[in-house]
Each structure stands twice: as structure tokens, then as C-alpha cells.
Amino acid sequence: MITEPYALPHTETWSICSQEMKRIYKIFVSVPDSPPPDDGFPIMYVLDGNSVFASFTETMNLQTSRADITGKKPHIIVGIGYETTGPFNDNRYYDLTFSPDIDFLSYYPIDRELPQAGGGEYFLTFIEKELKPQIEQKYDVNKENQAIIGHSLGGLFVLSTLFTSPSSFQYYIASSPSIHWNEAFLNTAKQQFLASEMKAKLLITSGELERDHFSQMNEKAKMLNDELQKHTSPVFESEFLEFPGEDHMTVLLPLINKSILFVNDIKTQNK
């Protein structure tokens, strides 16, 4: 019997070193096995790519295999990850937070030294100025149909990006956002965002079992959505979903299904 490593069809990976931060990222890309639309493929940028890129890719391929019936459009998927064999890397603490101040430590001290935080602005610049141009040069991309998806600290990064750079993407998906990490920064940025009129769609999700998290992760996510919905705008929409029976990790699989619905503008509802 001859064995060989399994690779997802129509995918590739490469490494890139950010010019300003001198950090190395592993980039995962899947491209639909179909001709691109006249305006290019819509695209999803997925944070912590090592953990969920393959799941996103397989689910997208499955759900768009009969696009003529389902109405779901194939997307390019770009996973932004690290040179690691694990699902996560400690560099994410720096990349996904916009403030070096960790707000929750005053009421929930950690018995270990946490990695450096506060590099989110540089990481966003890397995505905008270095990664996106390479992706757009290599693939047929619809620049007016871009989504960013992040979980936990990645969800915090998604919210921070929306509030500070709302024109970077059209769809923002924040899964179980760690609002408690940079809550003061996020609140300030949120007020600036609410004073603007930027076109975007936001989906915030959380797992039912996260109601018991010390950070009130579930409650903070719902409260944020409630506040955003009070500021009605013809160009901005916000939605909150809670996944029954799911915790901080198991929430990822239902998130993927809902994300694909959301970026296809198919109404997302808990069934």
C-alpha cells in the first residue's frame, strides 16, 4: 500500500514576511473550481487560518456545489495563519489586539505572563498594504465584496477593524469576541464609528455555554449588538446570533455555516 499526504484540492499555501513588523505569516488560499464572475470572486479573509481554513474550504465547496439551487456564491478563502502545526500561535495576542492594555487583568488576574499585546494596527496595515495586493494580483477578486472573519481574539480584531477602518471590508463576522481584552479601546473606537456613515454588515455570534465565561463574553457581545442596532442607518446592519448548546470551541463549526449564509446575504436565523 502506497500512502501520501492529503491536500485539499484547489488550495495552496505560502509564507510572507511583513515589511514593517518582520513577522512571518503562513497564508492559505482556496480558489473555486469554476470560472470567475465578470466582477471577480467574492473573498473571505479568515483569521487564525491554521485552525479553520480547511473547515471553511470544505464547507464552502459543499454548500456552493449547486449554486444554481442554493444561491450561494463560491468565494475565494484566504486563511491568515502562522508557521505552526497547531491551531493557534501566541503571536496572535499581539496581532489581534489594538491596545497593549489588557483590561480584564484588574479583576481576573492570570497566573502566567501573557504574550505582548497591542499590534493590531500594524497587523491590519499588513493585511491592507501587503497581503491584499498580492492576493488581488494573483487571483480574480471582487474588491467590493470582501469579508473578514475572526474568533475570540480574532473576533475582537474584527470589531476593532470595523470601528477604526470600516471601509476595509464589506462583511464583518466577529465570533465570540474577546471584548474584555481591549474594552476601553473598543468603546472609544465604537463612538467614532457611530458618528460616521460607513457601509458595512456585521454579524456577532456567541455560544450559549459562553454565558458562564468569567468575562461575560456572551452578554457583552449581545449588548454591543443591541447598542449598534439603536443607531439605525441605511448603510449599516448588525445582527447577533447565539448558538444553542455550544461552547467557546464547539461554536466554530456552526459559525462556518452561518458565515457562508451571511456573506451571501441569506438571512441568518437560529433554527
Structure, described:
With 271 residues, the protein is an alpha/beta fold. 34% of the residues lie in helices and 22% in strands. The protein has eight helices and eight strands, in the order βββααβααβαβαβαβα. It has helices spanning 49-63, 67-70, 92-95, 120-138, 153-164, 183-194, 217-230, 252-263; strands at 11-17, 24-30, 41-47, 76-81, 141-151, 171-175, 200-207, 236-243. An eight-stranded mixed beta sheet has the order 1-2-4-3-5-6-7-8, with helices on both faces. α1 (49-63) crosses α8 and α5 (153-164) runs parallel beside α6. The longest helix has 19 residues, at 120-138. The chain is globular and about 55 Å long. The chain starts with 10 loop residues before the first strand and ends in an 8-residue tail after the last helix.
Termini separation comes to 45 Å
Mean pLDDT: 93
Give me the Rg, rounded: 18 Å
Helix-strand makeup class: alpha/beta
Strand content: 15-25%
Shape, per Cα inertia axes: globular
* Unreliable residue runs: none
Secondary-structure topology with pairs:
Elements: E1 11-17, E2 24-30, E3 41-47, H1 49-63, H2 67-70, E4 76-81, H3 92-95, H4 120-138, E5 141-151, H5 153-164, E6 171-175, H6 183-194, E7 200-207, H7 217-230, E8 236-243, H8 252-263
Parallel strand pairs: 3-4, 3-5, 5-6, 6-7, 7-8
Antiparallel strand pairs: 1-2, 2-4
Helix pairs in contact: 1-8, 5-6
